Amino acid sequence: MPVGILGKKMGMTQVFDQNGNCIPVTVIQAGPCYVTGIKTQERDRYAAIQLGYDEVPEKKLNLPRKGHLKKAEVKPLKVLREFRVPEEAMAELALGQEVVVSQFKPGDFVDVTGTSKGKGFTGVMKRHNFHGSKASHGVHEYFRHGGSIGNCTPAHTVKGRKMPGRSGAARVTLQNVEVVQVRDQEHLLMIKGGLPGARNSLVMIRKAIKK
């Protein structure tokens, strides 16, 4: 039963299907991951597994991380993330178990979570898609400005206004994206379309829940 996997976004390319149609895909270096923790309903009040990914030299880990991974008898791992799983799937899992990309197959639909690219400080037109002021019939000083942000009562800017500020660098989840190819030997997943994040950024991949 698919429980999810961690990976790195390698970039985009294209593949061709049996009919010769070109399909844009994102290549994910997915796994191998290891089960480093198991949460149960009785003990933790929710069912989940913790996966570890990205082997690093042991000297780069602090003592709590070393002790935690030692209990699971796995290699020194940089990234730890939790995946919620159904209670019935817990019997199939054990500490130290390897989780690989073969749990997915072409045609599966997955949810992919990553951190979007940061765009720095941006104005309201780029950040919130404001259309701006008029660009004709005279000079307009405030073409790219946000316009009025309040009034005399309550004499301050109300919270929640769409204002300039930092854009991007946020947690984003794309739901129901299709797996196009799975390469077990190379630990590669090819997922249709673009995915959030820059090259070499971490992504979490879970089997999509159809509603």
What does this structure look like?
The protein is mainly β and 211 residues long. It has two domains: 5-124 and 171-207, Beta Barrel (Elongation Factor Tu (Ef-tu), domain 3), CATH 2.40.30; 125-167, no CATH class. Helices cover 9% and strands 39% of the residues. It has three helices and twelve strands, in the order βββαβαββββαββββ. It has helices at 41-44, 63-72, 124-128, and strands spanning 5-16, 22-30, 33-39, 48-55, 77-84, 98-99, 109-115, 120-122, 165-167, 171-183, 188-192, 202-207. Strands 1-2-11-10-7-12 form a six-stranded antiparallel barrel. The chain has a four-stranded antiparallel beta sheet with strand order 5-4-3-6. A two-stranded antiparallel ribbon has the order 8-9. Strand 10 and strand 11 form a beta hairpin. The longest helix has 10 residues, at 63-72. The protein is extended, with a radius of gyration of 23 Å. The protein starts with a strand and ends with a strand. The model has no long low-confidence stretch (mean pLDDT 87).
